[in-house]
């Protein structure tokens, strides 16, 4: 089930995103530890929290890319192209 988390994250500032990421990672580590020790009622919570972490990181990266100049983006495209060619040759 998809959440509206990504819409909420767009309204956050960069500092709020960093704080949210730190809190979510700490929460994930705590839940993971609890699961290892005594188990969870619903282990799918781990998946939800991992996905929330990924959503937050994606939003941070999206903002980084939006702040890049055209020159930086073109250099990034060249790097991505080299990586894809290297993957295909393996």
Description:
It is a single chain. With about 90 residues, this protein is an all-alpha fold. The chain is about 80% helix and about 0% strand. The chain contains four helices and no strands. Helix 2 (about 15-35) packs antiparallel against helix 3 (about 45-65). The chain starts with a helix and ends with a helix.
Rounded average pLDDT = 88
Oligomer: single chain
Q: What best-fitting shape do the alpha-carbon axes yield?
A: flat
Report the radius of gyration as a whole number of Å: 18 Å
Strand content: under 5%
**What is the helix/strand order?**
HHHH
The helix/strand class is: mainly alpha
Low-confidence stretches: none
| SS element count, helices | 4
Helical fraction equals: over 70%
Quick tags:
90 residues; 4 helices; mainly alpha
């Amino acid at each position: 089930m998809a959440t509206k988390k990504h819409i909420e994250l767009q309204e956050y500032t960069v500092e709020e995103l960093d704080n949210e990421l730190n809190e979510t990672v700490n929460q994930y580590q705590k839940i993971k530890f609890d699961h290892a020790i005594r188990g969870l009622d619903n282990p799918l919570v781990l998946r939800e929290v991992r996905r929330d972490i990924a959503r937050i990181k994606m939003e941070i990266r999206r903002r980084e890319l939006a702040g890049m100049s055209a020159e930086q983006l073109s250099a990034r495209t060249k790097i991505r192209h080299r990586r894809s060619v290297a993957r295909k040759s393996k």
